[in-house]
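#struct-help
A.M.: can someone run this one for me? Single chain, 280 residues.
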Amino acid sequence: MRKFYLLVLFTVLFAILVGCSKNEALVNGKESKGTTEKKTVTLKIGASSTPHAEILEFIKPKLEKEGVKLDIKIINDGILTNEQTANGEWDANYFQHTPFLKQTNKDSGLNLVKVVGVHIEPFGVYSKKIKSIDELPKGAKIAIPKDPVNFSRALQLFAANGLIELNESSNTNKNYTVQDIKKNEKKLQFIPVDGPLLVRSLDDVEAAAINTNYALEAGLKPKKDALIIEGDKSPYVNILVARPDNKDSDAIQKLAKALTSPEVKKFIEDKYDGAVVPAF
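D.P.: on it. Structure tokens below:
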């Protein structure tokens, strides 16, 4: 009889242990499933409001389905944005072209890198006082971007349209300054202004050379309103920028792929009507 009771007790204990084991396995199975599912990675991205942030907002839902959430920060200081990206405060940025990045890396001792080229913003000259570039009076004041790269870019645009002539042989780094102007028959006065303030300067000068993102933010239509504008083959391609240590990460590469997708190409072409041109 005692053996019978011991057998019953053993059977009950075994059943309990098996039941617990199954429950544990079920719980562990759920936990295991949770750990094997893709975790959402958040990328902090510094971007100009137009068109950069708009393009990022367009791809945001698609990326979130792929496990990448974009935390988009609107910026107004390019150098500071690069520094914040370099020190890890932000994961990447999208607002600048390669010459600007190279100059900032050099001046600030950074080591940021291009991930992918996305679009071109043809650079234009605008005015509230004249309707044609031929109407520029002698001695006209022209506001142009203060940073060395875009200052040079503006001078090259004026030279390409025959308004000034640059001494190319005296320039070794391709960043032209007023000292490189060898012919200026209209004695145009080029005034350096911080990029975000160029639109406001239109009230005080005869014309201003303005980056397209700032022009678009102000409601200007580059193809319609610019007195002169760069061609679509401008070398100043706007790029996605990251650090050497994270540029090849899965999340950054998913972002790069989304930015150069057929859907983004169509979005740019439809929304900006030639003011922004896909570079892929």
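A.M.: thanks! The chain has two domains: 41-122+235-278, 124-229.
D.P.: also worth noting: The chain is about 45% helix and 20% strand.
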